[in-house]
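Hello Y.,

Per our agreement to keep a running log of every chain we model this quarter, I'm adding this entry. I've kept the format consistent with earlier entries: sequence first, then predicted structure.
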Amino acid sequence: MDDFVIAGFLGGLLGTIGDVIVHWIFVWAKVATSTTGHYLSQLIFPHAEVSLRKLLLGEFIHLLAGGIFGVPLAVFLIISGYDYALIKGLGLGVATWIVHIAIIPNMVSSRPFIYRTFNETIVDLITHLIWGLVTALILLIFRPEF
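Predicted structure for the entry above:
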């Protein structure tokens, strides 16, 4: 696939699907009580109860954001080379985790009332690492160029 934007978005989207699946497994196993979809729903509708519609909207936005963040990873891999692509994907996964956990929540004026517990923070780290690995793996397979 030659188009780095399409490859990056597709890689990021598939990475986010992996993130969502694993996150819901942790919720099902009662290790965590909420997902990124819950959290995004709270950012969009502060202090409102999370309904199924709002949760689905939050998950949809999560999928879009993951796809969008796949494009910079594609550009970075094209510029820096595909050597160690999985490690580079892990690095971007950690960077997006830091933005998700520490920066965005402190930038919004009406902070969500779904606070992350220690377990949920670690689950978020794991799922962001999965996003980085899957996204980089897809890009490694397609190896898009400019």
